[in-house]
Amino acid sequence: MTQHVTITTDAGEMPAHLWLPPTGHGPGIVVLQEIFGVSDYVQRRAAQLAEQGYVVVAPEIFWRLGVTSPVEGDDALQQGMGLVQRLDWDAAVGDAAATVQWLRDRDEVTAGVGVLGFCFGGGLGYAVAAHLESGDADDTAPLDALVSYYGSALPGLHEDLTVTAPSLHHFGLADSFIDTETVRRIEASLTRQPATVVETYAGADHAFDNDDMPWHDPASSTLAWSTTAQFLRERLPVA
């Protein structure tokens, strides 16, 4: 069952969704949304993580724009891209970092905290991990794990920001938004860190994990989710 919660930020209370595991406690995972918001798909993935034993929270990152529900309709992609263009990136990084701290402070969280992000959220998660390692975030420890699915901001981040936390990145090699040459550059850059793994999927487009989208690739999605689950079990083991 989803609980509706709020997270205190420097601009007020940010709405978020919380899922508890069957035991009621465990490691924490912050799930960061696609450009469509905390969609039904994102909520399904968050619920699956909770079933695996994690305390999961998904913040409404577009809340500063007055948007706290998913964008839908035939023009959802255009709406989502418009929201991202209007978004204050630094504020979004700060809000996501505040969510990490909020989760660490929960009594239900009995181990480390990781971030899992999709598309927009995958790039945001990488920026949050770098922010938490930079020392600019007060009283917040570095991430214990990061999983990024086709992080859309990574082409502009990987050369300037370094993340040493254990991280797993998924990219399709038929991505309509991140071409294969760029994926390979990102892979070469990120894997300079020994705890970083980049997995690629031949024939998979952007958003290949989202089964509500025409780009969904069932085989790649299943393989990537299995790899994600194994990575999280190793980095954020459930007691």
From TrEMBL:
Keywords, comma-separated and alphabetical: Hydrolase
Question: What is any Pfam family matched here?
Answer: DLH
Chain ranges of the Dienelactone hydrolase domain: 16-234
Decide whether keyword Hydrolase is in the record: yes
InterPro entries reported for this sequence: AB_hydrolase_fold (IPR029058), Dienelactn_hydro (IPR002925), Dienelactone_hydrolase-like (IPR051049)
Gene Ontology MF annotations = hydrolase activity
Among PANTHER family, the record links this protein to: ALPHA_BETA-HYDROLASES SUPERFAMILY PROTEIN, CARBOXYMETHYLENEBUTENOLIDASE-RELATED
Q: What is this protein called?
A: Dienelactone hydrolase
